[in-house]
Each structure stands twice: as structure tokens, then as C-alpha cells.
Amino acid sequence: MQPRPARETPVDGAATPAGTLATVVSDSLRADILAGRRKPGTKVRLEELKTEFGVSWSPIREAVSRLAAEGLLLGEDQRGYRVAPASREDLAEVIRLRLLLEPMALQRAIELGDDAWEADIVTAHHRLGKFERQRETDAVAAEWETWHHSFHTALIRASASPILLQFCKMLHDMNDRYRRIFLQAHAFDRDVASEHQAIFDATLARKAKQAANLLKSHIERTGNNILASMQD
Could you say which DSSP state residue 74 is in? Predict the structure, then answer.
């Protein structure tokens, strides 16, 4: 893996804040973990991160602490960190919590959302649709992942509950990690684009209960497919 540029002292001589560097490091590590490039259970060596990103210890420690708080890294006393393991039990818990919290957040967003919220959903759904049925190449798959996350985030953003949104994001990221690791080599007879379309239509029609039930079914189908793939 090539060292990544994360300069602490830019060309103009001004120091880059440690918090900004920590964000660069944590965002990069999070993307690697969620995409499965850092496998469950593998060691994360702080010395190697320091060399890879070319930064001091402070942003490295802050970055891994953030990811540990999100459940993506596990601390090992004084021995460093490992990527969180993947287990059917953990995934089943993530699914149960998503089924409880995300439909609740969507119903609340439908009650409180304004025209700007609707516009965000329309934009995210439109961009997602451009990549929905052509995810064969890595580039298209990466764009789909970006807009898939944006669409699910936009749906519940108007719930006016920062804590609820924080938990939903964490659970969604955990679920996506399992999906991207375990579903890559599996094909299921499922029309995900139609599921997204149905959720989109019910949400914009302000049919809160219907939209919540469609979202719940969507989450449940994905979770069951991942659980099934983990038995192979």
C-alpha cells in the first residue's frame, strides 16, 4: 500500500490542524473497513498508519479512537487495534436495531420534512438510479455505494433527532460492511431498484406507515441475504 499524503505542514508553512488530519485518516480507514479492504479481525498497527499517512501520533490516535467508538475497530489493551470481527450474532443485532430505529426515523421525517428535504431525496434517488442497474465495474459500484448511502441518509434527515440519526448512521455503516464483504460473490433474485423506487414514492406521497413498512422490508431482505451468504 502506497503512503497517502496527509501533510501536517503545507507548502505555505501553515500547520494543518490535528483534528483535520484525524478526519482524513479516520475517513480513509473507515472506507477501507466498510469496503472490506481491511478484513475482519486483521491487526491495525499504529506505526504503519503513521508511516502510511505521514502524520504525527496525535491524529492517528484520534482517528482510531473515533473508529473504535463507531464499533469498527476493537482496542486490545496496550497492543493496538483490530478490525472488528464479523459474526452472524453481531449482524443479527444490527439488523434488529435497524428495523426498530430507521422506520421510526423515516416516519418522523415524513411528518416534519419540508420542500428542501424532499428535494434532497429526489436528487439522491435520481443519482442512485443512474447507477442502479449497471454495477458491474468497480467505478460504477463505488458511485452506487456513495449514492445508496446518500439516499438512505436523505430519507431520514428531517427527523429532527440528532441522536437517532447518529445511531442510524452507525448501524447503516455496520450493515453495509457486512453486505459489501459477504454479498460480493453471491447473486440473489431481487430487484433492489424497485424497492428503492417504492420507498421513494411512498415517502414523497407522505404515506408514513407505508414508507416505513417498505423500508423495514428492504432492510430485512438485505439482512437475511447476508446471513444466508455467511453460512456458505
Answer: E
Task: Parse the chain into domains and list their residue ranges.
Answer: 18-83, 88-229
Q: Assign domain 88-229 to its CATH superfamily.
A: GntR ligand-binding domain-like (1.20.120.530)
Q: Which amino acid is at 230?
A: M
CATH code given to domain 18-83: 1.10.10.10
Radius of gyration of the chain (CA): 19
pTM of the model: 0.80
Instruction: Determine the average pLDDT of the residues in 41-62.
Output: 92
DSSP three-state, residue 134: coil
Q: Where are the alpha helices (DSSP H) in the chain?
A: 18-34, 46-53, 57-69, 88-112, 115-131, 138-156, 162-182, 192-204, 208-229
Q: Is 25 left (phi over 0), alpha (psi -120 to 50) or beta?
A: alpha
The values of phi and psi at residue 80, to 5°, are 105, -145
- Over residues 80-125, the pLDDT tens digits come to 899 999 999 999 999 999 999 999 999 999 999 999 999 999 999 9
Which are the contacts of 178, defined by CB distance < 8 A and separation ≥ 6?
A: 86, 91, 94, 226, 230
- The 3 state secondary structure assigned to 145-187 is HHHHHHHHHHHHHHHCCHHHHHHHHHHHHHHHHHHHHHCCCCC
> Which residues share a beta bridge with 139?
none
pLDDT above 90 covers what percent of the chain? 68
Backbone CA torsion sign across 220, 222, 227, 228: positive
